[in-house]
Amino acid sequence: MAQFRLSRFDDSGDEEQPTFSTNTLQGSGGAIKQSTVLEAAKAVDFSKPDQSVAFEKKYREFLNTANNERTSTSGNILHKLADKSEDDWWQDKHEGEAGDGRSFLRWLLKNYEHMLKCEYKKDDSIPLHFALYHENHAFVKIALDGVEPEDSEIAPSSTLGQILQHRNRDDETCLYLAVKHNSEHVNRIIKLCARIGNEAGGVRRSNVFAQQSLADKSTALHHAVMLRQEETLAINFVTDPPLATIVNESMKADMRLELISLQVVNKSPVDEKRLEMVKLLMESEFIQNTASNVRAILARMNYSEDKDKKHNKALNLTPFQTRVEGLVSRIWKAYRAHAMTEFRGLPGPIKDKLKKTAREQALQTALAEVYGTDEILTMMKLFCIDKFRTNRKNLLQALYAPGEERHLEFSLSGLRGQTLTKDYLKRLVKHLKFESILICVSLPSLIFETDPVENGFPISQANSNARSGANYAGERRSEAVVANAKTNEAMMNGKGRRDLVSVFQWLRENHVRTIKRVVVIDDSDRPHSDDAIEQALMNLDVEIWDWKKPDICSDVIYSVAPNVREVSLYWSGNAATMLGWYSNEGFANREKFRKLQKILLYYDMGLESKQRVENQIKRFRERINHSEPAQLPNGKLTNGNLTNGGPTHEPHQPDTENHQNPDGDYGMVERLPAPVQTSPTTETTTEITNITIIDAEDPGFRSFRSSFKTIGTKSSQNDNKWMQDIQPICKFIRSIKDSNEADDDKTVKIAIIDDGIDACLDRFDGKIVSGASFCSQNGLDDSTVPYFVSTSDQHGTIMAAFILRIFPRARLYVAKLDERSGGVHGKRHITARSAADAIEWAIRCNVDIISMSWTIEKSSKSSEEISGLTSALNNAKQKGILMLCAASDQGNSTHLFCFPAASHHCVRVGASTGTGERCDWVHKEDYDILLPGENVPLNLSLDRLPTEHSGSSVATAIASGLCGALLYLARYALDKNKWEALKLTESNEMLTMLRFLGSYGPANSKFPLADQLAFLRNKDAQRTRDKAEVDKRLKDFFKQFEEYSVKAKKG
């Protein structure tokens, strides 16, 4: 970190000490030494006018001239006073005594305020900088009082603005130094920085909160949140099973080790004053009137090169990431100390295997425990979610290093009506890494497959217990016993559903602590019981409630969401339900629902007349905002009439949009206004105001009832010759046992940008590394459609399956695109904005290949969204990422520009027959390479018949898999410097490689064949004893390619 410097290196290279010269300071009144003035001041009682007047008369010219210089070689008198080491001035003395530094400083600032702006020539520091560095708290207070009395409500002076904006030569401000050196007056300085306007002494000012130091680019916020030495973090590591057992078992083939469990046994709480400082720093920046778009929460500081590089995953970190890095470093040190003791004396290979398996598991588990409970991280996450609610890009950049993004919402909206299994959730968690605070959880009506309960145990466990007993009479329970267990379970838990209890418990197990918004469709004939809802959402601190169960009890909402801000209610027309809602035990009780701001009431007319229903709603409105005083169980009185007006009568049609996605999952949901920004300088008080009530008739609750769409399959028994020829090579790649498989240098990362992937399929198990969705969920601004649920036509799922069929070792990064209606010929089309965002995300994930099996057709290249897409493609190209995209399938007649192909940054892939002839629908010129794209069969899962797929999108997926395989083989067979020299992630070089494979083809050199890799098809090639021969032939293959490439470049 940058250190405060009082001097610079001179020409000799020796650093000057921060001492003051007693050289003569020349003023117009003659030569007067600074030391002479200071010594004279010690004999003066500045509270007595006669003494102060005499002193000023003698040294007026000196004080007016010598100390008014903008650059003083040795600093002025205030620099001297600010140095706390000058004990003569800051000893405990009564106000008014001669030699009291406080009286002298007040007198100077009253008559010579300009001295505060005088710079120390060696590093441009002003006196207040010195005082903050030397932790001279008395000087800081008096200096601030001199230019801005505490608790003043008038506009800050221009002098104050200049002082707070001033930077020393290291670009450090008063705010920066106050935070870094933990000043007693840091909160006051923060508030003052928030108050100063755009103009500071006639100079347009910058954002002092986002000001970064010259040395390491850190901001005040970085220093505020850094893990400090006094913050203790004790971790207990346990090896289980016993080490001796692990050593024996590890000798068995490919045993997966699960040996480290750990627990954070002690973590010191963060000081309340520090929490307040961090909150002030973040909030103050957003309320000040600044023209700067730079924010401290997004600023990145550089980590020093001499730090431990083993766990450094980024060289520049935002404030949030800086604190996370500190926690990782502390946990890493604890693990290393544990490993040195635990694995001492083991044979080298076993020790290495144990360490490699245990390290990431230990760190991830420990970090997950700390990550969700750390007070500062939690505060920062909530702040970022609030401020960047409509700017997902900034939110992700503030919280996560590139490629390490966590999921901020969870949605299963595409699975409506399906049965959810534990196995499906286990697969999801392999590539889903949840944030501890989720913005939104949205769940359709699902059936969760659970074991029935008997005698307090799940049936599966009861079976296990029975098998171990003497009375077990068979391998399976009889149907009668299972039916009896289900009956017992219903008696214990009631007849209401409990399916989603398991889903929310699964979220807790994956370190989710808070859910801001809950949207659940519970519209079946047998909805969830109140007890199940309470158990599902207990302690998750829900703020926006939308559990779509008609006539839900207000006590259920209060029991699990006492801080709820917005509630959606679904009323069947039952008068008793409405009476409970507006009673003094319901929503009219403002002591219970202290933060409730809005109620959205959806109602069905039911059996009653329209007039009766409207009267009930009118009464509901009146009672909610004009409730009578009620006696609470704790003896307190509450009065809902503490408002500044009458009830809010709004038209019966709410300010909503009737949103409905393709599955019809969500209906009328109001778009929430941006949260009101309040000044952190004023104390927050609880003010009871009217609750906004919006009602809308919703017959049969159509707004959230829907049907589930299914798709059919087409039987096919034929295969494609090219696909048959490539399969033996794929099997060879699958058979490779690479000792460095976990090394990022060896693996190949492929980003598939499409409409998502059906992650429940077996073929994707362990293949998905990460994912992100850029598809907003209809009606929910703060939620996206999950990337792990594909659309009805399963396009992205099919493309990913083709990639894995060609290259089974691919590590997939999945991005889900947004689609809108109104495209060419009225079809749904991909938005260029979501495509650009997805490409930028892939860049941050450091992928090797981006696969884009789609086109965006435009009549012009000049639109703003297309420019953004082109820019993202160019950024990916500059980062050395290979991009493949589909050629247009509109034939030779189209006059539209097809992106991404029209950007000329990608390898354009067209569809061909199985023997290499171009398909008729592919433009005869707008492609670079051809691969199979006509009736190519694919079997998504074992329980389905194969289906045939056509189009350049299929060819693009196959090309992406082929390129991934070639890149993997190069990294497998060659040294790093050699495969890097091939530059196969550059489009021109990979095109050359693909044409090299097609150079012996009978039909077209643009149709790559597998013939040149035929030696990998031999059965002997897959035997371990022939590995050396295979490696040699692979090296020969890449050598031949290099020779071909040289000839091709020469023309």
Automatic annotation (TrEMBL):
Q: Fetch the Gene3D superfamilies from UniProt.
A: Ankyrin repeat-containing domain, Peptidase S8/S53 domain
Entry keyword Hydrolase: yes
Q: Region (Disordered): which ranges?
A: 1-29, 624-670
InterPro entries the record matches: Ankyrin_rpt-contain_sf, Peptidase_S8/S53_dom, Peptidase_S8/S53_dom_sf, Peptidase_S8_subtilisin-like
**Which regions are flagged for Low complexity bias?**
632-648
In this chain, composition skew of type Basic and acidic residues spans 649-662
- Ranges of residues in domain Peptidase S8/S53: 746-968
UniProtKB keywords: Hydrolase, Protease, Serine protease
Give the record's family classification: Belongs to the peptidase S8 family.
Q: What is this protein called?
A: Peptidase S8/S53 domain-containing protein
The organism named in the record is: Podospora pseudocomata
